Amino acid sequence: MGFLESISLHRIAPPRVTGTETVAELIDGAFSSYNAGRLREVCRVFTDKLLQPDCTVGLTLSGALTPAGLGMSCLIPLIQAGFVDWIVSTGANLYHDTHYALDLPLHQSRPNLDDFALREHDVIRIYDIVFDYRTLLDTDAFYRELIQDQTFARPMGTAEFHHEVGRYLHGRARALGRPTPSLLAAAFEFDVPIYTSSPGDSSIGMNLAALSLQGGRLQVDTLRDVNETAAIVYAAKRDGGKSGVLILGGGSPKNFILQTEPQIQEVLGLSESGHDYFLQITDARPDTGGLSGATASEAMTWGKVDPDRLPDSVTCYTDSTIALPLLTAYALARRSPRPPRRLYRRRGQDYEALRTAYEARLRSDSAEPAPRKRPG
Questions:
Q1: What is the tens place of the pLDDT at every residue in 273-309?
Q2: SS3 for 144-201, per residue?
Q3: Domains of the chain in sequence order
Q4: What is the pTM (predicted TM-score) of this model?
Q5: Residue 235 bridge partners (DSSP)
Q6: What are the residues facing 59 on neighbouring strands?
Q7: Active-site residues: which are they?
């Protein structure tokens, strides 16, 4: 075998596109190079590696995905198929998801509208999505009323908070006798925990802050979130399983899902080697130094990604609103549904297992952090 053959996956000789191909066939046949090639790699690693029975799949959401309808079109089907086990999302995506749950319409439009005219007519714009200002007010009113319930009169992590919101939205849809288009409700139904890495940085957080001014007892326990997410990853890999992450965009959710490994290794001092699979869809460049564009190999230096697993790490530079529907269609066509892991129900036991391991480490003779696993 010559050098060229040793670095070649296969010869480029795609079949003709006829118009009769399924999405999965088109991706396999025609997405050969550049970011189309990377998207095909993301699709294949996701379906062939992350969706194996022993892999726990974490998903991050940043950018305005739910306003564009991607919650109902893609994320809910992935949850229902057992292809997503836990989520880290911006609060904004969950706030806008609530519009759909409350049947508050959002509309397609154009990106070049007159924003002064929109302001005069109380119309809100997210690029080419528009909706009435009342949608925000009605959603705010929903959250302010809901969190008056005694269920929320105590400290809780964001996963528990979102689970209780999802419980109400799921129950509302059942009472109305219709399926819910809400990501929060679907996550409740399948016990998929949803965390928000910056809970104060959204309209949901703003309404919780208003309740605090009124003497409300709800306090968001962000430190609980740090340990709960680390416990999910630690439990996933403790008995020989694997952890995979699918990152849509970047930002705070990306860091939060990846910092689970430094939390386990560096801070708690437990032996671990990093996430096994790293798949990222982003339009951010790596050379500006921002986290959103940082590569898997850079994350490896922090202990976030297992060095031995870098070949199974792929970054595709494209818009998540393009890639997610294609990836969803590909995965649903190529893999049978998996039984849901229902990680929300296991939060307590996984948390205690992490605490027990940490306390045992503290009692050990050495207080030094466990060494990272090295390549080779």
A1: 888 999 999 987 776 665 555 665 665 565 656 566 5
A2: HHHCCCHHHCCEECHHHHHHHHHHHHHHHHHHHCCCCCCHHHHHHHCCCCEEECCCCC
A3: 14-361 (3.40.910.10)
A4: 0.91
A5: none
A6: 87, 246
A7: 304
